[in-house]
Each structure stands twice: as structure tokens, then as C-alpha cells.
Amino acid sequence: MTSLIPARLTVVRTLELLLAVLLTVTVLPRWGVPVDLVLVLVVAVGLRAGTQVGALFGLVAGLLVDVVPPGSVPLGATALVYAAIGAGAGVLHRSVRASVLLPAACLLLAAAAVQLVRLGVAASARQGFDLGHAAALVVLTAVVGALLVPPVMRLEHHLVARGMV
């Protein structure tokens, strides 16, 4: 008989995701800091857990971003992009110990990909798009992510090593 209680690591990831969404939507915009903490978390999980978990986590994270105000149009676009980014980061999960710069480079590419998709959506809907804001978001997300990804990965490694999952 399988347990209906989720693994502790799933609970930790869920709490991290909820905190990242709330901070990204409420606190950081008030401080004028354009950082996508959800994307940082998607890359961290992908780098730590591999392609399947990275893609699934990215899909769930993107859906949450899509439904939390201000949301995104079309619904599901962010979910698909984050799923692809989670899977892409997961491809590199065996190489993450080889380079300290890998998480930062991965985040820079991921943040740029998200902004390119948003640019495409805005162009197809004939809406304006602030390139300066998008560039700031890409750079700040990569910098903050380079600082946050290693501790998130260490936390998950610690939980797995201690048998807490």
C-alpha cells in the first residue's frame, strides 16, 4: 500500500515555490527589484533532480505563476516555458558540480528565454514591451539566482543525504 503523505522533499519544494511566488508578486515589485524567484527555483530543482522532475516542477510552477495575479496571457504559456527550462536545466544536472558558473549561466539563458517568449506574446497581441525592464529582469535574475541556487541545492542534498525524503 502506498502512502498518501508526500515525501518531505516535495513538501519543502512546495513551500519554497509558494514563498517564491509570493515574494515575486508582492514584495519585490514594491522594492523595485525585478527578479523572477520562481525561475530561480525551477532552475535549481532541474539542476538538482534531473529532467523529469525539473520539467514537472517547472510546469507546476508556471501554472501557479499563470493563475496568481497579475497572471499571464495566454494561460499556460509560462507553464510550458518553465517546464522546458526545468527540463533543460535537468539535462545539466550531472555537470553542476563541475562548474561554479553553470547555475549562473543556466539562469541567464533561462531568464532571456522567458523574456523572449514574453516579447513574442506581446508582439502577437500587438502590445507594448519594455525592453529595458526585460533586460534588468534577466540580469538581476541571473545574479540573484547565482547566489540562491547553491544553497537551495545544498538544502535538497542535505535532506536526501539524511534520509529525510
Automatic annotation (TrEMBL):
InterPro entries: Cell_shape_determining_MreD. GO terms for biological process: regulation of cell shape. Belongs to the MreD family. Signal peptide: none annotated. It holds the Pfam family MreD. It comes from the Bacteria. It is found in: Cell membrane. Its main location: membrane. It comes from Calidifontibacter indicus. Keywords: Cell membrane, Cell shape, Membrane, Transmembrane, Transmembrane helix. The chain crosses the membrane at residues 12-31, 37-65, 72-92, 98-119, 131-149. This is Rod shape-determining protein MreD. It is a multi-pass membrane protein. One of its GO terms (cellular component) is plasma membrane.
